[in-house]
Amino acid sequence: MDALSIISQDHSNMWRLATTIDHVALEIEQVAPVDMAFFNAVFDYIEQFVDRFHHPKEDDYLFRLLRQRSSEAAVIIDALQVEHRDGPANLAALRATVAAASRGELSGGQLAMELRGYTTVLKNHIRAEEKNILPLARAHLQESDWAEINKAFLDNADPLFGETAKAEYRELYHRVVSLAPESVGMGGHSVGSLQASSASETKAELLLQVQGMESCYGRIKALKGITLEVRRGETVALVGANGAGKTTFLRTLSGVQPMSAGSIHFDNEDISKLRSDKRMRRGICQSPEGRQVFGPLSIEDNLRLGAYTQPKHQVEGDMEKIFTMFPILKEKRALPAGTLSGGQQQMLAIGRALVGRPRLLLLDEPSMGLAPLLVEEVFNVIKTLKRQGMTILLVEQNAFAALAIADRGYVLETGNVTLTGTGQELISNEQVRAAYLGM
Ligand SMILES: Nc1ncnc2c1ncn2[C@@H]1O[C@H](COP(=O)(O)OP(=O)(O)O)[C@@H](O)[C@H]1O
Ligand SMILES: [Mg+2]
């Protein structure tokens, strides 16, 4: 991490926040009540993080040095710094406006307009920095400037920006996510830990080796000879357009879809002819496309289903770990799974795969159909699992997000692997960018 990537990451969080406020403004306009807890969380985050930390840090280092190196940048910085300076006062005014609206002194329509005014300024500000300032900084700042800037941004003992402060900012951000309306947010967290895979599992070792896999629906060949590998501890992304064969690949791998040619080796064993429950016992556990939780069954019973191949005595303990990861599931543990929101059902589907104690976790489009903030939470969960050493095969249409967290990736097109490489290589590949990343 360097200062620029920290700044860009801050920007993308702030952008999501602005989008979320816009969404809430729309709801308020359509007469939803004003949720003060949500707005307080948003304003606390902006006050603590954006106004007290993010802006001063830019002012003190990046902007100060860039001013000296580029007169073109200096003009833009002048305008941006006026906005930095006015930030706290504008925020205070918006807080007062929201409070007035919650007391009924302002109509929903008026509040929505104020909120949009605020997010428009915020978005334009972020855009100006991303589109103008950061490129100018890359072009004009000298090595010694970068050394100074990076040092300031990476100072982990800094009271404003050290580890402790960062944990607090993250906490504030999570609070916003958990208080955002069902349609954009959820009451789950992406923290907590499950058992890590055993320490003896070294990275370079092959866990899964698929060779020439073919599979058909009637006379139509959906997989035309897929060769793919996953090493222990790796996160591998399989990306491709709708209908490319991603789901068919995962289903053939877990044994619920017949394989007409090819072989599958898992942990040095040929499992090509094993039944699906036997593959699951060996640790190939899938969170299926479209989540497929059992709506009438309780959340607890859904989790128990995922653990049916496991010894009884460990199941309760494993379920508690899932509840630590996803507190909202614990809160609702006795309720029918059908009462959960889409994002919560996705968490349940992942939880159900995890209680099967996967050695290879298969995730089929975990972000499908979810609102932006939820997509982020789902990817946070995957990142956490990855950090804990879980081996993951991630299927996604959301190619950018998937490749960004993957060690390696494969691009699938109509039943064939057409490209493979590290996540970063694929993200920067022209072909991939044009076809899947919309750039
Ligand atoms: N149950 C099915 N019966 C017939 N054809 C199917 C079935 N499921 C998928 N297909 C076809 O197989 C191809 C791959 O589908 P799928 O694996 O679902 O792709 P993806 O998951 O990448 O969107 C598509 O052409 C699709 O129409
Ligand atoms: Mg699919």
Largest sheet: 6 strands, mixed
Lateral strand order in the biggest sheet: 6-7-8-3-9-10
What is the helical fraction, as a range of percent?
55-70%
Low-pLDDT stretches = 185-203
Put simply, the count of helices is 16
Question: What does this 3D model show about the protein?
Answer:
This protein has 439 residues and is α/β, with parallel strands linked by helices. Helices cover 56% and strands 15% of the residues. It has 16 helices and 10 strands. A hairpin with a 2-residue loop joins strand 1 (206-217) and strand 2 (220-231). The chain binds adenosine-5'-diphosphate and magnesium ion. Residues 246-247, 289, 365 line the site of magnesium ion (MG). The site of magnesium ion has 4 residues, from helix 7.
